[in-house]
Structure formats: structure tokens, C-alpha cells
Amino acid sequence: MKKIFSPVLAVVLAETLFYGALILGSRPAIADGVSDSIAGLQHEWVKAYYVTPPNQKVAAFKDIAAQAQQLAATYPARAEPLVWEAIILSSYAKFEGGLSALDKVKSARDLLEHAEKIQPDVLNGSIYTSLGSLYYKVPRWPISFGDKNKAREYLEKALKLNPNGIDPNYFYGDFLQEQGEYAAARGYLEKALAAPARPGREDADRERRVEVQLLLEKLKQHG
Q1: Domain residue spans in the chain?
Q2: Using CB atoms within 10 A as the burial measure, which of 86, 96, 138, 159 is most buried?
Q3: What's the pTM?
Q4: Quick one: fold of 6-162?
Q5: Where are the alpha helices (DSSP H) in the chain?
Q6: Cα(163)–Cα(161) distance, rounded to whole angstroms?
């Protein structure tokens, strides 16, 4: 299949909507199966994103997306499954490419906005981390809904809810370096690198720290 907009979609929130900030949220765990199911999706995501061979990634994300959609349908009053369905759709879009990828990132945005209406602070501010990353990664209108101002607003909301988290600091640092705000970006990336470990998310933390270090290396060329 011919991939279009690949330079943008190749870094979209799948990257963008990412993994780590999306550990357990502020809502206490209850014995309804949601927490265990979310943990399973998280690990499946990491496996599909980092371990699965490139020619098998689309199929892997198609399967995980179906699982996430079913979980969200089973628990319609819970925000967590909606957030993870959005994350998985964003990753699916990255590897699939083409016009259908744009449809998936729009669906991801809509799922996050729905989750926000249910519980805006769920998963330690992951709704806002994910929305922020989407808004600065996807193309602008008329192709898609990209908006740098909205991206900054959402990422700053995420940091207010989770100031020491690895993901909000990483994504805000990445956003700032894209805007040419290199000194500020470095500060947030260093904070991301020093973020506390998240029990049960060791695989995601490991991969995120690699990305943080690579971006810090990139920033060295700017002094």
C-alpha cells in the first residue's frame, strides 16, 4: 500500500500517544477486570511497537485495537479503556499509513475527548499528554487537525497533573525542541530521564528512556 504523509505519521502519537504516562490512574483499582485488562494492553502495545517485525506490525496493531475496542464497549462508563484504545489507534495509524491513518488519528482524538468528559484526570493526566502529542504531530488543516497552540495547552495541563512523569516531560521537551526552544526542551528531557520508575511498566520505561537520551544527544548540536 502506498503510504502518504509518512514523514508526519511516522512520528505520530502512536509515538505520540504513548505508553508510559498511561500506567494506573488516580481512580482506585476495583475488582472489575479493567486494571488487569489495561495492563495486558500496555504490554501487548510494547511488544507490537518494539519487538514485532516491521512487516507484521499492522496485523499486530489491528488485533490489539480490536481488543481495546471490546474493552471500551464492555466498560462504557470507564475512561481508561477509551484512552488506551486511542493510543493503540494512533500506533496503528503510524504503521499503516495512507488516508485510513488520518481517520484513525481523528478517531483517537475523539476517544480522548470522550474520556475527558468521563474523568479528565484519569491515568495521571494521560488524556492531555496524548491529546497534546497528537496536536503537534499530525498535519494541520486542511489535511488534519494539527495545532501547535492546542498542543502546548494540553501538554501543560498534563504536566500540572503529573509534573514528574516521564511521558509528559518527554513530550513537552520534544514539542519545545520542535519549536526551537532548545534550552527549555533540555530541562524537561532531563526531568523525564530522572522520572521515578513505574511498577509494572518497566518495559515501556526502558524504551522511553532510550528515546529521551537520543533527543538529548540531538539537542547537543544546538549548544
Answers
A1: 6-162
A2: 86
A3: 0.84
A4: 1.25.40
A5: 6-9, 13-16, 34-46, 57-74, 80-96, 99-118, 122-137, 148-161, 166-178, 182-193, 202-219
A6: 6
